[in-house]
Amino acid sequence: MSEEKELLGQRLQVVNIGLEVFAETLRRHQVPLVHLDWRPPAQGDAHLLDLLRRLQGPLPGSSEGSGERAKEG
Amino acid sequence: MSSGPLDIDDANGAALQRIVDAEPVLVDVAPAGETIPELRDMVLLHAGPPIGWKEMCEPMRAAIVGAMRYEGWAANDAEAETLAGSGEVKLLPNHDFRAVGPMAGVTTRSMPVFVVENRAFGNRAFCTINEGVGQVLRFGANDRRVVQRLHWLADTLAPALREAVKRAGGVELRPLMARALTMGDEMHQRNTAASSLFLREIGPPLARATTPGANLGDVMDFLAGNDQFFLNLAMAAGKATMDPVAGIPGSTVVSAMSRNGRDFGIRVSGTGDRWFSAPAPMPQGLYFPGYTAQDANPDLGDSAILETMGLGAFAMGGAPAVAGFVGAGTFRDALNYTREMAEITLGSNPNFAMPTLDFSGVPCGIDIRRVVESGVCPIINTGIAHKRAGVGQVGAGIARAPIDCFVRAIEGFAEKFLA
What we know:
Mean pLDDT of chain B: 95
CATH class of the largest domain in chain B: Alpha Beta
Largest interface: A-B, 23 and 26 residues
Largest sheet of chain B: 5 strands, mixed
Shape of chain B: globular
Order of helices and strands of chain A: HEHEHH
Number of strands of chain A: 2
Number of helices of chain A: 4
Largest sheet of chain A: 2 strands, parallel
Strand order of the largest sheet of chain A: 1-2
Strand content of chain A: 5-15%
Radius of gyration of chain B: 20 Å
Helix content of chain B: 25-40%
Order of helices and strands of chain B: HEHEHHEEEEHEHHHHEEEEEHHHEEHEEH
Oligomer: heterodimer
Number of domains of chain B: 2
Mean pLDDT of chain A: 81
Low-confidence stretches of chain A: 63-73
Radius of gyration of chain A: 23 Å
Number of helices of chain B: 14
Number of domains of chain A: 2
Low-confidence stretches of chain B: none
């Protein structure tokens, strides 16, 4: 608890990640901060994330790919 | 790359290298029908992915009507509209014929086109000649003066340029564009330096060329009076650069981006000629006096081929003056746009260096995977057409390619290569 109290008593140092509206609120109160523009990969869409994961490097079963590679897929 | 397992990284490396290696050279100025054999009577090319007459926006329809009067296929607007609506006139995308056109992008057989050869790969690409700004066919103006200007371009300007280009032994566009970039052009909404450099290249052979019937003074006035003259040359260079990138098996690099005023479409190298489309966005920008965002047509034109190759908005950090013109903000914003585009591209083109960014090359090689993963969409500098026929250009701005194009492209690519 004492560590937390100590932290709350210090000057805020903020890195805001994602929604900029939180950064704007702090800026209005003159809190110095760094805003990082970040979004969840593929907007968190599980189907797209799965496709993106599979579309890395060698392609497992393309029509132009070899039979051997297709078997691996 | 035709046998053995495909590797996306290898395929994309090849795509990026082809963009960097391109050597676009202006080799001719010729009637479109001479260079595109499929362009016969009653065949007309337009910007963007395929679209039927009924679905077209008003500026594109107006440009088609004007082009049909210019060709003599119709005596008046009503006759032209009936012909176009009946299907007697074939309406096809420029991109299917190695061509591009700004805004409505209408190309017909007797319109002159720049012929640009990519000497690294031997392919050729075509683009019509820029008519100037304001009330022009590409923005949907089509009155008598517009059609008269088209005739002057074909009958006076084009033959003079053709002879001059022949005398010059061609005009190498890559070094000219590279220099223009260092002078503040991004070659989409700012072509002030490139147009001036081109005039310097073509001026002496133009003056020496024997062009019976041509009025050299009028030709020089026209070239000197249009800051955007080089846009269409840059576009032809862009198409000549990007066509060899198309059709590399396994590559997720975007080979074309274009808009027809209703849809925004992209093509991806590995999936060949297939378009992945979504509704065209509304540009955000600055308007000429008397016009507002209410007057704007959705984004339009093949000119996004420039962003596809890494110029235009992708190079905005190297062209700070254009940021103000398109309402994109400050110099810092311009730098940030270029840095943001670096997040969705595979590399950079050292042939197009930006002094303002420590001479780093423009970001190029848009990877559909990076776009979908990051949610960062390509940004495009664009002219804004009035949504009603006959008015013309009303402003300039920026537009974001819709994410849905890239989501559909990822799904289409997976369908082909993960099946």
